[in-house]
């Protein structure tokens, strides 16, 4: 079952990044595991991911929190993408071009109308925390 969810997540992200929109910035994102309300991805940072100070762009960091946590939610039984009602990112340290990062997202709670998600972004080499995120999504039907 986990393999099926992993394949589905990879297909969804591939579809998202092949279009003409903003999500193309995630075309190098690699899903390493997905299932049971959790998704883990890796990304090797390139020039397209940097800010003017040559560090990881804050907007990309927020996008990673949004997309990877939503993907985690979609692997939970009954989980659907929903719409964001709150997204918070705490930026703890920078990452540079060539470094690899790990994005680990987990579904904290899936209720009838809201889903609560958390994300940690770490440096793959040394495990240092780069950013944390929380994401609340409306998943109701009304």
What does this entry look like structurally?
The protein starts with a helix and ends with a strand. A hairpin with a 2-residue loop joins β1 (30-35) and β2 (38-44). The longest helix has 17 residues, at 2-18. With 142 residues, it is of the alpha+beta class. It contains 2 helices and 6 strands.
Features:
single chain, 142 residues, alpha+beta, six-stranded antiparallel beta sheet, 2 helices, globular
What is the quaternary state of this protein? single chain
How much helicity do the residues have? 10-25%
Widest sheet: strand order?
Answer: 1-2-4-5-6-3
Strand content: 35-45%
Radius of gyration from the alpha-carbon trace, in angstroms: 14 Å
How many DSSP E strands?
Answer: 6
Largest sheet: number of strands, sense, barrel closure: 6 strands, antiparallel
Low-confidence stretches: none
Distance between the termini: 30 Å
List the total number of helices. 2
The average pLDDT value, as a whole number, equals 93
Quick structural overview:
The protein is α+β, with helices and mostly antiparallel strands and 142 residues long.
């Amino acid at each position: 079952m986990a393999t099926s969810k992993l394949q589905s997540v990879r297909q969804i992200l591939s579809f998202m990044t092949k279009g003409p929109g903003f999500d193309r910035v995630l075309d190098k994102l690699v899903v390493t595991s997905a299932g049971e309300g959790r998704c883990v991805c890796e990304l090797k940072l390139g020039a397209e991911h940097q800010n003017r100070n040559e560090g990881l762009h804050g907007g990309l960091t927020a996008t990673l929190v949004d997309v990877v946590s939503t993907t985690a939610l979609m692997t939970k039984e009954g989980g659907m993408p929903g719409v964001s009602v709150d997204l918070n990112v705490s930026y703890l340290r920078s990452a540079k071009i060539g470094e690899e990062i790990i994005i680990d997202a987990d579904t904290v709670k899936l209720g009838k109308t809201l889903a609560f998600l958390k994300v940690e972004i770490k440096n793959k080499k040394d495990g240092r925390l780069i950013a944390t995120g929380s994401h609340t999504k409306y998943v109701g039907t009304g």
